[in-house]
Amino acid sequence: MAMASWNSSLGSYQKQTMAFEISCRKRDRDRDRERGSIHPYKVVEITPPPKCLGVRCLPPQNLQCGESVTIEGQGYTISAVTHRYQLRKGKYEPSEKRLDVLSTGRYLVNLYLENLLEQS
Q1: Phi, psi for residue 116 in degrees, rounded to 5
Q2: How confident is the model at residue 20 (pLDDT cuts 50, 70, 90)?
């Protein structure tokens, strides 16, 4: 979303860009969980050795394998999405969402090497 403003003291036209930030606090997560909307994702970079990138609230969209996400300015490609459920009072309820990611460069190298292996 962009906004324009006129600065009369300088006599110039400035264009400002508004950025949105998604925050994820425990209280908000509990309230959202009751409504069934946003669940935070546990993000793990799966290159050896695996590295936990923390728990992240990503925009409410259907994340799938092969999609790109940006975490702390670094680009990653989703390798796997895992949904875990827990049986509570006779009903299965979502308990955790996990994203296994690879850095975009590593993902492209893996694709290239798999292609070479298939050709040989």
Answers
A1: -60, -40
A2: very low
